[in-house]
């Protein structure tokens, strides 16, 4: 309390009570900045995950397109007799692709495989034609659909 002497009369004026308001405001700002920091950390972690997913998607798309182009190029050299039926057509495709690809550097010791009516490049479980040293590669299956057309799945 302040004491004022005005003439002979003493007046007492109460001080304004603002004790601690600065501390409360500082704590509120501290909590606000803490929440913002957690939000920014979470957002940056999410951005890294999105970036990695986009890179993997781009590699997968490139591998699929490369595989499709590779198989189409190899099939361009296959000669199928006009009177071929389903079974003989797939056997012809298998025989000619095996002759063109088995033992080449692209196959890396793997072979073309015929399972029923499906030709697989390269054959076997877990085998892929590698595109780079980072594990990117493709596997293709060729089968016959109606009216003598071939379907390529990469």
Helices and strands in order:
Blueprint: E1 2-6, E2 9-13, H1 21-76, H2 86-101, E3 113-115, E4 118-121, E5 129-130, E6 137-138, E7 140-144, E8 150-153
Antiparallel strand pairs: 1-2, 3-4, 4-7, 5-6, 7-8
Shape type: rod-shaped
Strand content: 15-25%
Low-pLDDT residue intervals, each spanning 5 or more residues: none
| Helical segment count | 2
The total count of strands amounts to: 8
Largest sheet: 4 strands, antiparallel
Radius of gyration: 37 Å
**N-to-C CA distance:** 87 Å
Task: Characterise the protein shown here.
The protein is of the alpha+beta class. The chain has a domain at 64-153. 47% of the residues lie in helices and 19% in strands. The chain is built from 2 helices and 8 strands. The protein has helices at residues 21-76, 86-101; strands at 2-6, 9-13, 113-115, 118-121, 129-130, 137-138, 140-144, 150-153. The strands form 3 sheets. Strands 3-4-7-8 form a 4-stranded antiparallel sheet. A hairpin with a 2-residue loop joins strand 1 and strand 2 (9-13). The protein is rod-shaped. The model has no long low-confidence stretch (mean pLDDT 83).
């Amino acid at each position: 309390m302040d004491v004022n002497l005005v003439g002979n009369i003493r007046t007492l004026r109460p001080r304004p009570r603002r004790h601690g308001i600065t501390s409360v405001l500082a704590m509120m700002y501290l909590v606000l900045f803490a929440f913002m920091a957690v939000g920014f950390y979470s957002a940056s972690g999410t951005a890294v995950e999105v970036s990695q997913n986009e890179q993997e998607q781009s590699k997968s798309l490139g591998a699929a397109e490369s595989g499709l182009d590779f198989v189409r190029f190899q099939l361009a050299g296959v000669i199928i007799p006009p009177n071929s039926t389903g079974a003989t057509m797939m056997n012809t495709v298998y025989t000619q692709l095996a002759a063109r690809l088995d033992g080449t550097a692209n196959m890396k010791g793997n072979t073309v495989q015929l399972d029923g009516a499906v030709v697989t490049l390269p054959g076997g479980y877990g085998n892929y034609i590698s595109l780079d040293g980072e594990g990117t590669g493709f596997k293709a299956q060729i089968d016959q659909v109606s009216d003598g057309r071939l379907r390529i799945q990469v």
